[in-house]
Amino acid sequence: MSTNNRKILNGYHVIFLTQSTMIGTGILSLPQRLSSLGYSQAFVPLLFGVIASISLLPMIWISSQYKNDNLFTINEKLLGKPFGKSVNLFIVVHFTLFLAGIISNYMHLIQTTALSEQSSTIPVFFLLLLLIYIVSGGIKSIARFCTITFFLTIPMLYFLRWAIEKGELSHLLPLFNFNGSQFLDALKKGYISVLGYELIMFYFPYIINQKKALKHSLIGLWISIILCFITTLVSVIYYSEWQLKNIEYSVLHLFKAGEFTFIERIDIIGITFWIFLILSSAATYLWSAKKGIDSLRAKKKNYHTYLITLAIFLFVVIPYSREYQDKLFKLSYQISYIMLAWPLLLAVVHSLKKKQVKQ
Amino acid sequence: MKFNKLKRTIKISDNEETTQSKSSDSNESSQAELFVNHPEADKTIEKIKNHTGRINDLIFKKIPTDEGIVTVIYTRSLVEKMALQVMIFVPLANHINQIHQVSEKLETTNFPEILNRLISGQTLLYFHHTNMLLCIDTYSAPTRSITNTETESTVIGPQDAFTESLETNISLVKRRIQNPSLKNEARTIGTETNTKISILFIEGIVNKDNLDKINQRIDKLHYPAFSDISILKQLIEDNPLSPFPQYYMTVRPDSVTNYLLDGRIAIFMDNSQAAIVCPTTFLEMFISVEDYYNRWTTASLLRMLRFFGFFLTIMITPMYVSALTFHPEILPYELLLNLQESRSKVPFPPLIEVLFLELIIEVLREAGSRMPAKVGQTIGIVGGIVIGTAAVEAGLISNILVVLVATSALLSFLPPIFLMSNTSRFVRYIFILSAGLFGLYGQMLAFAWLISHLLNLNSLGTPFMSPVIPRKAADLMDSIIRFPIAFLKGKKGISNSKKK
Amino acid sequence: MNRNLILFFASILIMSILVGCTDKELKVPLEDVGMVGIMAFDYIDENSFKLTVSIPQFSPEAKERAQIFSVTTDLISKGIVEIETLSDKKVVLNQLRVVLINEEFARKGNIQKAIHHLYRNADVGNKVLLAIVKENGEEMLKAEYPDKPNVNIYLNDLLQPSINTAFNPNTNIHDYMYTETNPVFDTIVPLLEKKEGKIEMDGIALFKEKHMLKELPEEEALIIQALLGRKKLAPLYLELNQAEQKEELMMDLINSKVSIKGNKNMESPKVSISLHIEGTLVEYRGGREKELVNIKGITKLEHDINKQIEKDIKEFLEKLSELKVDPIGLSENFRMYYKGKWNNKLKEEVISNLQVDVQVDTSIISTGTLK
């Protein structure tokens, strides 16, 4: 599809882009990340939804001030070229790391469940190849992929049936059985799982109906939040608190609870099918990162995508210590929180500049 | 009286045919007293003869008429004798005015034009007295009659199918849509073959952008020869490299009619049976026109079968590979014990086993389609039953795999479009290979590729996956489930022009 | 886009080459894999145990339908590796169905660690059934069952839920982990005993903390299941010991419903249990046979049944209260309203002070077709 600067994303595209980018590997381990709250975590995703909706507002506002620019150009315009560019470089590096985090996380999971006797180098290679293929289609084809991913993967909710049957609703009580520090800990660890909606700052210029973009992305956001909510809810009613804390990929074990007469282990099918969710969120990140390099070099080249992908590949595959790797990925998660606050800063700069111009 | 004259002309023409190579001065002299030949006459005839050179079935025939000598020039292989009689010789002998009424005048010096006329089956009449060249379309190459289709046959509904004649095909459509808005634009393509094509559409319903697009693409064509419309199709497709056909191809006039009425464009080509319909969508590859004749319940069931059959056929055998090599835990215990038992003698790994059997099926299919029908049946039985059971007993393959491969082979023939079933076969190999490499993970990777590839495809600029991600909510009424006819009003979203 | 397609076709090519390469070194085809169906742990001493596995034998020529290997080891995976040296195949745990633990191991050994290991292993499903074996697991696997084709399938089928063994808690690995790590529960596991030529399910084993505490008979196990809210219960056998005579009856239970309510008071905990059961009277022996033809008689019988069951339940719960164990999760009704972290100590407190109020409501829908 054409990648030139045209308005190509309609409402559905925005909804599902927002939605699919949020659902990736994060949701797999969300219950574990929130486990400091114990059983009371069930309703926390809804709270996250509120926080996310609020933080979405400045993003949309700053984007709609510069209707034809993505965040990279806005950075340059507001902060000046040198500083803006260095910020952009920072964002690109962050995205690359973040992507590497997503993919390495998923491949780790695949390696423990589905490909237990293989090194993950070649599987990663093919995953990235496919990622390039999807990204090369441009944002619209990514959006379409996200849409279809949603409809293909939503039937997986059915796999939760057995866990729901076995679970006990009484676990939901008492409602707010935690203290402040536990909550902050959960917020810090768990909020990563709902990240991804901030990418709207990058594909905003492509949206046809920019006035309704807020509404559409909110719909997408809340679909994801509700999915997260279902995940934590089912986890809470199915597991004991110890299990919540100690099972890293609780969704995997939720799938393990079920069986059909012809398929004994649904978890493997579910986890391999998860690749759609990984691809759809990774593709949007990769596309944004590519746009970043485009704006840094002021050129549009396809090999920018390959460059980033190569970097990701090296990050994931090179066997430096896992500890260091984890540290790096954690760092990039923390940078994500800066990304959430970034539009606020931009908004301040923007209004200051406007005042200057008026004077 | 009339009869006599007719006889006379026939006689003359018989004579002429045998002596046409000689110069016929005797005839000329007998009529000479009435009309004087134009001074240029012989020269002109000579020049035409020179230009046509070694086209041996070009016939020059001198006939004395009421307006002096007329030389009739035509290509014998393109004009039927009967047509010649009725359209040329009888009027020449009796009512020469008729000729003047129906014919078209040509420049006697425009030789390329003259040649073109001749090789396209028109008959030229040269009047020696007035040095005038007239031309009448007598093109009547032998065609076969309308028969029923073998590739897209249905139980209910009209049984006629297109033939290889462009005019017959257009007439088959036009008699179904008797509406002045049904237009057919004729064009000629093929730098060497000068093949006639005709673009059919219904004005007012068709999307103008699409029409422009298809015309532009045909304009850009530089390809010497078109022996079938499928070549044209591959040349004007949006993504020629894709394994998926992006235009609908059918030999059923009722199917074409349906699509025309939905605002699509149909392209016909002379000498090829099928017609292209564009734009089309992935889902329509699984829609047979019979779905509209069946009750909606049956039709929906069949559609679902075809659609999910496609995904099953590319998934079943890869599933076997990945379950046996990577994830034995997903199979139930009892089945697994059976599998172990039946595989205990098989010397190949599952991947090779599957590829082996799939290839045998391909060979059977290919051999069966080349062989004469009667032999083909025998071979089918020999191949299917003898090889199948013998291979299992010999311990070359496991019996469960035979069931799976046979099922998936049958499933691959479900799509009503034959090209689609070929595609499914190709895509299946990708899946088998990736399953052999990474098991279920590889399969899902391949599936994700398939989906993203399909999403990237366009058919004449409109997304190929349209009804899956509908352009219009009402499209869903006629997708995998066909709603009762009363619900199916209006055009599909794909036929509408893009929103600006 | 075209370039990408070429890219993709190239990758297909690479893929086919890779398929050729990787196949040799890594993948063991299905027929060369020995899939462990049953695993048995037998206690030797504190640090080591005897690990026995049963691998189904598919080859029609083999005399035995299962290969059974035993090793003495202190770690499961080490044991599996040792077994691999005995077996002609690659031993995998993908298809593990049943884990047997002998009583001694359950009472003294570190059963928790063994199950944790299996729970963590991604190859092993969560639906692996657990059972405690009286005496010896190895012997149970090695014994002959002349009318059963394969001990793997036999044991698996035996432990599956079935209407006549509704007292069976069908504990699988997840259930074990869930009840073991959940401070409101104590684990129960079915108990098997080897008889001549067959295996019998003989009540359940009740755990306290990490070790097996006690053996419970079928009737009590059935009460646990009823109070856990199981809908389909086994045919219920009752003896009504009223003052004048002894009555015996058998009921087919169609439906049962239980609701348990706690009084939210930690100091003097009290639960009220109301159990509603519906069923048909299948067999009756006793003095009232003649009265049962009319509704009045049946109502009276229902009333007597209610009393009997209430008494049974109360006695059983008192017993639990003395033992300070809670296989039913009655303390969940108090945890729900308790702010703060719940733990085993709190549970024991609740259970030992628990007062129970039981109400049973039986309705006999029919008395069969005979009058």
Automatic annotation (TrEMBL), chain A:
Localization in the cell: Membrane
GO biological process: spore germination
Membrane among keywords: yes
InterPro entries recorded: Spore_GerAB
One cellular-component annotation, GO: membrane
Source superkingdom: Bacteria
Membrane-topology annotation of the record: Multi-pass membrane protein
Keywords from the named record: Germination, Membrane, Transmembrane, Transmembrane helix, Transport
One Pfam assignment: Spore_permease
Transmembrane region(s): 12-30, 42-62, 87-107, 119-135, 142-164, 190-208, 220-240, 268-287, 303-321, 333-352
Family according to the record: Belongs to the amino acid-polyamine-organocation (APC) superfamily. Spore germination protein (SGP) (TC 2.A.3.9) family.
Protein name, UniProt field: Spore gernimation protein
Record organism: Psychrobacillus vulpis
Taxonomic lineage: Bacteria, Bacillati, Bacillota, Bacilli, Bacillales
TrEMBL record, chain C:
Signal peptide: none
Intracellular or extracellular location(s): Membrane
Domain Spore germination protein N-terminal: residue ranges: 28-193
CC annotations in GO: membrane
Transmembrane segments annotated in the record for this chain: none
Main location (coarse class): membrane
Listed name of the protein: Ger(X)C family spore germination protein
Alphabetized PANTHER family for the sequence: SPORE GERMINATION PROTEIN B3
Similarity annotation: Belongs to the GerABKC lipoprotein family.
Ranges where the Spore germination GerAC-like C-terminal domain occurs: 202-368
GO biological process: spore germination
Pfam families, alphabetized: Spore_GerAC, Spore_GerAC_N
Topology with respect to the bilayer: Lipid-anchor
NCBIfam families associated with the record: spore_ger_x_C
Record organism: Psychrobacillus vulpis
Keywords in alphabetical order: Germination, Lipoprotein, Membrane, Palmitate, Signal
Top-level division of the source organism's lineage: Bacteria
